[in-house]
Amino acid sequence: MNKLNGVHLRHNKKTRNCETKIFPPPKKVTIPMSQSMGAPCICLVGKGDHVDVGQKIGDTDVFMSAPVHSSVSGTVTEIADYLLPNGSVCKAAVIETDGQQTMCPDISVPQITDRKSLIAAVRESGMTGLGGAGFPTHVKLGFDPSKTPVDTLVVNAAECEPYITSDYREMMECADDVIGGILLIQKHLNIPMCKLCIEDNKPDAIKLMTEKTADIKSIDIAVLPSQYPQGAEKVIVYSATGRIIAEGELPVNQGVLVMNVSTVSGVYRYSKDGIPLINRRITADGTAVTKNAGNYLVPIGTPVSEILAYCSAEDAEKVLYGGPMMGLCLYDTDQPVVKNNNAILAFKHGKVPETTACIRCGRCVAACPLRLMPLMIESAYNAKDVAELKRLKVSLCMNCGCCSYVCPAHRPLAEINRLAKAMLPRK
After folding, report:
1. Using one digit for the tens of pLDDT, what is the confidence trace for 71-94?
2. Four-CA torsion 236, 242, 248, 253, nearest 10 degrees
3. Helices 175-189 & 115-125, crossing angle to 10 degrees?
4. Does the domain spanning 115-273 belong to CATH 1.10.510.10?
5. What's the CA gap between 263 and 123, in Å, rounded?
6. Which residues of 242-260 are buried (b: 16+ CB within 10 A; e: fewer)?
7. Is the pTM of this model over 0.90?
């Protein structure tokens, strides 16, 4: 792995200079009990209960999970079944807002003095990874330094997908929180070095963060080429440190802890004010957005339809959670904003190209950041050859979509890779 494979995309960062605006609380929010990887929470409230802003409304004893808090004050009108994007179902609290936004009296500033208290505080905050799959942050911080010593914190501020500028605005508007979070984590987890990784298409953020960290020797601003998928975990670790995360490994196995820049900033704010994760900065943009494209701080649970209405994008034919390469297509625009959403993108549906036969050009192989062979994976999947899929290392696929993007035959290679991974027996 001597160079980064991938693709060059049109950045379309039209909202990069749009300062974050506060999106008003909607009349109703729907807050799922599963907003992170791991087990869903048990709902702690029932129909008719009054809740306040920041009140914990879902929790579980399962370690691989994160508690859920109310983003509004109001009355619980229903505990409904909620269909997750992966097809599973969890409970969700439907809350009718009262317009008061009364803060929960139980909110207090956490006392963080060591590793244990930091991890406990982060769990209570409900923090999850804000740039990807929503991995519970306290689980990520809970590595055993005697087994997997970590010497480098990699803060992912690459934001390599088109359109999305929410992490960029985090740096431009909350630079001191980003740095405070880095130093807090370094101090209590005893991590000597941090690489704050920013793509070179964000010169203003690079300049600001370089100035802010000029006297902090433990933080290095790593300027990375703006090539997709630079922000993928395995890729950014290699770009920043030269270390390779092997199949079946986590970054901590290579002495690296990877965190999204907005997650780091959010941890710091919680350490100062005790307000849990109840809002999410998102980018609202796309070809179907006719006005008010920008960045918004949105209460978790806000229906996407309200954001589309505000942006005059009700006629959008395709709406995504996240970016155009790895985002999830919404089946219903009444779906709520959840913790790991960084964008709501609305598009006019262009012409779908016709799929033709593979011409064995090898472009998918050349584009794959992990040097996989999507054309051979497709053949093995069609043959239902599980042994061959294992040999081809399909489990390494990060579903970045580069293979589908470059395929001149318009074959659905990324989708097939995902199906092929599901074909492998679970360990």
Report:
1. 999 999 999 999 987 788 999 999
2. -100
3. 140
4. no
5. 13
6. ebebeeeeebbebebbbbb
7. yes
